[in-house]
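Hello forum,

I keep getting stuck at the same step: I have a sequence, I want structure tokens, and every attempt I make locally crashes halfway through. Rather than fight my setup again tonight, could one of you with a working pipeline run this one for me? It's a single chain of 474 residues.
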Amino acid sequence: MRRMKTGSIVIVISIVALSATVLAQDIIGKTGSGDPVVVDPHMLSDMFVDISETVGPSVVTITSRTTVTARMPSFPDFSSPFGFDPWQDFFGTPREQEYTMTGIGSGVIVSSDGMIITNHHVVGEADEFDVVLQNGESYRGDLVGTDPETDLAVIRIDARDLPAIRLGDSDELKVGQWVLAVGSPFALSQTVTQGIISYIGRSDVGLAAYEDYIQTDAAINPGNSGGALVDLDGRLVGINTAIASRNGGYQGIGFAIPVNVAVNVLEDLLDYGYVRRGWLGVTIQELTPGLAEHFGLDPGSGGVLVSQVLPDTPASVYGVRRGDVIITINGEGFETVTEFRNIIADLDPDSSVELGVFRDNRDISLTVILGERSADGTASEPPPPSEETYGWTLEELDRETAAALGDRELSGVLVVSVDPYGRASAAGVQPGDVILEIDGLHVENLSDVSRLLSSSEDALVLVWRQGRSIYFMM
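Reply #2:
Ran it on my machine without issues. Output:
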């Protein structure tokens, strides 16, 4: 990889393309009072310049080195007519060889004494890394702490009087707001690009365990990771992290971790050496329209369904039950499982939380003190529901099978096979599932399954799967 010249670093500005008509005219906006105001486009350009000059010194380039061991053949790989390697006994096993992988990313100075926020994937697995400032000065970096579950890390350099960036408030961001991204894409340090906030609270992207991203169309490319996303006041609002791309380059969708999340991670890493997260002790699932209708709720009401309460957890101690629908947390609603997990995790362990719960067709309130998530039949019996009706094969669960599944105390009815085109498969049932309850009534044998399913047009079925329980509508 070619090393950048550090003597003269240029700030590159990428301005959104404007049509020829708009360029020839003034930009018309509105003041806070609603009165129209005319803004000279040159003023907008000057504003971008000022922001770049202010923010640039607070963004650093990080080069990392990681030693990797690879197995190398000890003899040329000649094709053998014997069907085996006749040279093995003479030349031994393949040898191991070490080589160094290099990487590049960005970081943001958040304190004048050398504290820098970046991404875990930039420095978390590196053996060593250097930090290069805007003025070309280079320092060896030390890892303070890392949080892979948010893909954030904190590093430190031995320097003083550094230009720390001003922090914004990511909770105040709005879709459509202008932002600038600053970093070192493709080792091009101090590159500035401009765009808008495209979405707030993007999750289920598959990048980290806890996701609550700011989505932007400001150009982000490899090397931007760990860099700054700033508002028009030059305040840090996000840490650039990843892109959605079919070819590995910029395609208009980038993701940044909100600065409020980054600050919380920073404070916990400095105070505790790890990130403390609130923990309830439940297994939850999305409240689908079918499940919402079954429980007598509006399909658009939001919330999550509790499918399992783990023993000896805050949830079990403070009265949360399987089948509860949690609607609010501290009076605030939410829509998805991911949102619920993020809210609970963001709360401090040992803090009190008020859960709004829908149970037995009525609303109740539960106060819970959160814990801390660690880093870490006979012939006379009715026949079972036919395979033609539900598309499954069932058998009663014996102790040996229960033990083989990992829980000797497990009781219920085992799903042996599922027709991929049947009713059970369409509902989400899989081979190996154990039917525990139907419409809230415990299932002991094949007769129970037949009786309970035949008495209900739309049954709520609770199954055990690999240590956790899940509800399905049948």
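The chain is about 20% helix and 35% strand. If your local run keeps crashing, start a new thread with the error log.
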